[in-house]
Fold these 2 entries.
Entry 1:
Amino acid sequence: MILYTPIPPELIWERQNQETATYQEVQYSGITLLVQQGDNGSGKIVRIISSNPYAYLIPELQPGREVPLLFPQ
Amino acid sequence: MAGELFIGVGNILKKVINHHQLSGKHLRKGVSKIDPVKEFGQVSLPEVKTNIHCVTIVGQIEGHMTLPPQNKTTKYEHIIPQLVAIEQHPDIEGVLVILNTVGGDVEAGLAIAEMIVNMTKPAVSLVLGGGHSIGVPIAVSACYSFIAETATMTIHPIRLSGLVIGVPQTYEYLDKMQDRVVRFVAKHSRISEEKFRELMFRTGELARDIGTVLVGKDAVEVGLIDEVGGIGNAVHKLQELIEEKKRQKNSPSQ
């Protein structure tokens, strides 16, 4: 793989071997969200992944809001 | 006295609770969309329709390898399906590509750029902040491109990061990679291959590297970007292109 970027490689690969990724992709009503896993089955929205500009206006899906990761049966 | 006051407060509380129960019923009927998220993980999209969709490309463009978590990345597997959906959806008439990227994977960047070039729906790109390295082909891939007055674009040679085998083949491979980028940019903007290469190998402009930084109108002057502007100009231009497309469709004889 070739990276074409002015950022020096040592900065990009700095923390390569550290496991810090606790993010998870979840779907809410067809919108993909990047969620940081928290305690008791909930998660905090980190990022919305959608090309629909109005998906970013939904108050329930604002980054920082908690969403359940485990759904009731 | 104190007892009466307590009862008074109690009544108010009861009223508040009743009110909440009432609004709770409303929630279940779908008047407010806050509770359904907590309860079922479902929300309904707002009714407002948009005929343009927006693809934002931020941070590093991530391709074949997942980058360490301190990097903010735009993943190729997120962008490509979005572009496919935009191309297919009957209600979406155009796409706005907003760039603030430091570059990244060559193949992922070129893949996104090729997708945008070949879309049948009009695309307008806007470089905000930065559109460096592999961000350049993505910016020029749109039908019309804008750059903010303060935004910058860095043009520099591609080089190998990580393990380098010091054989002539390695350098030939890199050269080929670079040619792909140069040709793509020259084909889809007003800049010539020679001029782009000249900017790429210019010395004395970058502290750590050879190459050039183009700020706002510099990018327009060399022919890389079509116009200096912001979100207003970009949306206006996109609507114009959509109208033009509709007119062409209505009069196919011309």
Note: Residues 32 and 48 of chain A are 6 Å apart (CA to CA).
Entry 2:
Amino acid sequence: MNKMKSNAVKNLIKACSFLLILFIILNLLSAAFLPKNNTLDAGIDYESTYGYRAEEKDSLDIVSFGNSDLYSGLVPLQLFFEQGYTNYAAARPLESISNAYYTLMDVYKYQSPDLIILEVDCLFHSSEANDADDAITNVLYNYLPIFKYHDRWKNISLSEFTENVHYDHIVTNKGYIYHKTVEAYQGQDYMNNKKRKYMTTSTQIFLDKFVKLAKENGSEVMFVAIPSAKTWTNDKHKTVADYAKSNDIEFLDLNVEFDEAGMDWATDSRDGGNHLNYNGAKKATSYIGQFISQHYQIEDKRQNELYNQWEIDYQKFIKNK
Amino acid sequence: MSYTSFLYLFGFLGGMLLCYFITPKRFRWVILLLGSYLFYIAASKNWVVIFILVTTLSIYLGALWIEKINDIFKKLKGTLSRQEKKELKEKLIFQKKIVVVILLIINLGLLVVLKYYNFFAGGLNSALFNHLSMSLPVLKFVLPMGISFYTLQAIGYFIDVYRGKYKAEKHLGKIALFLIYFPTIVQGPITRYDQIGKQLYEGHAFNYLNFTHGSQLILWGLFKKIVIADRANMFVNHIFQDYAQYSGIVVMTGILFYTIQLYTEFSGAVDICRGSSQMFGIELPKNFNQPFLSKDINEFWQRWHITLGLWLKEYVFFSVSLSKPFKKFNTFVKKFGNDYLSKLLPATTALFFVWICNGLWHGASIKYVGYGMYYYVIMLCGMYFEPIFKKIISVLRINIESKWFKTFQVIRTIVLVNIGMLIFRADSLQSAFQMLKSCFVPSQLPLNMIPTLGIDIHDFVIIIIGAAVVYGIGLIKEKGISIRESISSMKLPLRWTIYIAAILVVVIFGAYGKGYDAVSFIYATF
């Protein structure tokens, strides 16, 4: 019996030692595989998501998170032009709240925003199992980036094993992705559609962590729902509104205030109601800007010379779009 | 939840092992049962579980019913005269057959309706109803996960009870676990109740060796699936979707890569499942045994998808061969046919049913029937032309024991199997034929063409090296060397270096994450 016990202890020590050595090696390799700049060429997964890293340190007032609804529906440069808020849309396709949480952690290494906006469509993406898998994946990606950037073996250079990261690629659109196509939504009132309305367990866990992290870092949190006739419903609105109310968070649902924002499905969608086009994004951004100015105290930086580049970038964006 | 997902590997499997080994031994099977249902629900739609519950309940009650009929005979046989005994036996056999037919109608019926209805309806419409200006509607069914696998296990169970191979199980939980056991539910291996029933139910103590061997098998499976199969998938999809654009060596590479993909994927998945099961101390049957070292097609099918082959032999081949009409047919052939034919015709007939079932089991489409018939015809050729082959060998004085002849046989089998895989993967029999024809049109595959074929040159090299490693390991295994035991006997630093290197190969060279689509297991859709 004693021998069995000592064998078990020996095996446990062996297993733990093995895992520790493996973790150390993966950690060392992670540093090498990590892209050394926030550009696609350097190997970053979504260039426009991580542009906040290259902005002047602590220069952003607002950072927003979400999926394609957000980077199609919020124009950060316009928000600066209209309200004077420096802001960045750190969105990516099919964003999940677990990934947004780790991106928010990353944001605080470079910025100290007053307001964090979460576009809430990313809270209803997937099933319990898929969301849990996504959450585990994001935990791994965050602590051992080799899992995320493993495919860089194809073009990694030896020097990258010793090189430090230097994020200096400015994303001039500040995370917004421009679409001018018009494809009208021709369906009925989508808010009464039946779609999954509950948040999965892992979404709830990571949403709580997201809100807590923001508040711990002195940021206020605001929820926004950008209009999407293909994914949004009344039931989802109620679920988010309940959460927002119990956590003292402002919630602006542009699906509900669609008419007040002056939006029109005949002209404002790029793909039949799933995402906004630039026309819709302009209206959504203006409305969100007014809402922020009414509910939060954020300094208007338009007269501040230090932020002249934002004005220049906005003019460039308008000219080039 | 896929077997290759982080959720399965780090969450579900880890959680199950923990729960299993901290639970008292006699309740450990309950953990497996609950975990398996959780896995099933997580991997498919919640309500779909109803189908496997129907199968579980029907075969449980049906087998008990058959057992009861057997008991009646045992109880009464001592009190009856010989004639009465014979009459009772016939009556009870008839009753047992009725039960078997009911069970077949329920279970095979569910499978046929859900999987094959549209196929048969389409056939009937074009053959009959369309001429009468009528048509059977096309219906959209949800195919429950693993239905083709657990239905075969269910049928095997009650036929075994019917044949008196073992007694009906009185514990509903044991039957439920046998059918839904999470490492076998998605794509096998197809198990028999007498093979794993006891193992599933008895609580196993934690065994360090089982744990490490299981982990190694999972790692090997991940290497095959994530590093090779999922990478080859991109090339294969590109060629098969646009086959008319390509010819010669490009199409041949596409077909070869599909063969590599299917083998590494299916055997990789089974390795992950067998490894997972081994960690609990439950040994699942092997499903592959170096199939690409086979010298003929017959041997190939004894090494490829072994559990399906055994199932078809046990429950189709024997059921047909031992049936009354078949016996009558044999007698007729022996009486009126010559020796040569009377030896071959019975096997020809029984094998027809085996191969039509094999083809149709893989999918409800005419190309799968063609797939089964392709192997059927090859096997018949082997049987009927055997005397001619022997004559040729003797005339040409070929030494069939020589190394080059054996190599020729292996290459011949690989070529034939690749044609089979082409039928299996192509959209239709016609596409398969077109692709086969285009193989003979000369073309080149220069290195700078590879990036236009769905993968880059790095991926191409990884597939080739990966396939060579798998083949090389197969050759070593064939010599009776157990790689896992050889590694286990090495000194700790070398052993750990090998393990860590293997893990790094999977982590770094795996085709997962951004830029790669998660590829569902091919056999999980059957």
Note: Residues 259 and 421 of chain B are 6 Å apart (CA to CA).
